[in-house]
Write a structure and sequence with these properties.
Rossmann fold; globular; 11 strands; alpha/beta; 230 residues
């Protein structure tokens, strides 16, 4: 059983129109999930479209594990820290940085886990994207910030020295999946240059427009995986 996790842009996608809804009851709250055959779709923000810092990551990942998921294919919206990583393209990170609010299922157990994104899944994702002629960078550093605001120019001037893209969700999801030994890959949709990378001021409306464009490409990726497997 594989699970797709995505943001609000795919919630109303025609791809999932005929999928059955499952409501999973977890120790962290109820989670709505769509199911078809051996695939699940989870909208990380939920039906209430919660902001990034309010996403119930523990409930989401616990629910997927309880339903027998053995692999997660995630789609994450990011801003670019590098001028060569252009909006409209994609990146599959091979590592991440998260300095604050790192989640865990093991609050009361002495357990340690070495975080590692799944290289086999990353290669499979890159193969799918290459087959669809989607400009995709394999490898890169994802930096997670807490949101919901974008980063200041001063913050970006520091972050660009160590990372490639910035987002608000992937590191938390990936960490919890790793604690449950669930392979995880993220296809990051580059929707904007981060605040201060270009001289042109960042505009939220432009970000939303690019997200909509990139989601059509993401739908093609998901449709291919559903047809050919992963």
């Amino acid at each position: 059983m594989k699970a797709f996790i995505s943001g609000t842009s795919l919630l109303d996608s025609a791809l999932f129109a005929n999928w059955d809804e499952i409501v999973a009851d977890t120790p962290y709250g109820k989670v709505s999930i769509l199911k078809a055959s051996q695939y699940l779709f989870l909208q990380r923000h939920g039906k209430k479209r919660l902001p990034p810092h309010k996403i119930p990551h523990h409930a989401n990942i616990w629910a997927l594990r309880s339903l027998g998921v053995d692999g997660v294919i995630s789609v994450n919206s990011v801003g670019s820290l590098k001028t060569n990583l252009r909006p409209g393209t994609f990146i599959i990170p091979d590592d991440f940085i998260s300095f604050c609010g790192i989640p865990t299922f093991f609050d009361y157990e002495m357990r340690f886990m070495i975080p590692l994104l799944d290289a086999t899944y990353a290669q499979k994702m890159h193969t799918v994207c290459t087959g669809l002629e989607i400009e995709t960078t394999l490898g890169g550093i994802y930096i997670q910030t807490s949101g919901p605001r974008f980063e200041t120019k001063a913050e970006i001037s520091v972050l660009k020295k160590v990372g490639d893209v910035v987002g608000m969700t992937m590191a938390s999801e990936a960490t919890l999946c790793m604690e449950y030994s669930i392979p995880y890959v993220s296809l990051c949709s580059i929707d904007n240059y981060c605040n201060g990378i270009l001289k042109t001021p960042l505009a939220a409306s432009e970000v939303e427009e690019q997200i909509a464009k990139n989601m059509r490409t993401v739908e093609a990726v998901i449709q291919t995986i559903l047809g050919e497997g992963f």
